[in-house]
Amino acid sequence: MLTQLTNPNSRLTTPPMDGKETLALVNAILNGISGSLLLLGYLQIRQKNYRAHGWLMASALVVSTVFLACYLTSYYVYGDRSGNLPGLPRWIYVGYLIFLAAHVLMAIVVLPFIFAAVWQAYRGRWQRHTRYSRPAFWMWMYVSVTGVMVYFLLYQILPAIAARGMA
Fold it and tell me: Which helix (H) or strand (E) holds 57?
């Protein structure tokens, strides 16, 4: 692979990524890691392995915080890419925006649940922690999975559709 990237006669047709695309890929990877940690934490609590659950969920929170920092950096340095898809059929673009809006809305809605669940766990109030963490888990998992999907749509699938002029 490295020789393909450095060889000018290579058949590799993928252009090198710019800074925005690199940060978007990093964000997708962070979302995937966060979702994986959430799932592992969920499986641990189902097995009553409280210590492992706590570490996995704390790790998911750290990874998600790093994601947020990278996302905000990307947004402020490079701006928004969602409106930069020339040649994409309008109905596909509208569908993507609806999908993106649901992702962003859920990302905002889940934050108070996460903060409340973490605070209640810190205080040792396990019943209250459970009350907040049950909906937080599913919302957070949705945001992690759809975050990866947004990356593939915005940087892989939709540009390919626009380039081919598919409707």
Answer: helix 50-78
Give Cα 145 distance to the centre of its chain. 6
Q: What is the pLDDT of residue 4?
A: 44
C-alpha 145/C-alpha 140 separation (Å) is 9
Residue 93 and residue 85 in contact, taking contact as beta carbons nearer than 8 Å: yes
- Residues 115-129 have pLDDT tens digits of 999 999 999 999 999
Mapping DSSP to helix (H, G, I), strand (E, B) and coil, where does residue 88 land? coil
Give me the chain's average pLDDT, please: 89
CB 20 within 8 A of CB 81: yes
pLDDT tens digits for range 10-56: 454 555 568 888 999 999 999 999 999 999 999 999 999 999 999 99
Q: Which backbone phi and psi does 131 adopt, to 5 degrees?
A: -60, -40
CB contact at 8 A, 116 and 132: yes
CB of 32 closer than 8 Å to CB of 144? yes
The structural domains of the chain, with segments of one domain joined by +, span 18-164
Residue written as token pair 């996302």? 71
Q: Does the domain made of 18-164 have the CATH classification 2.60.40?
A: no
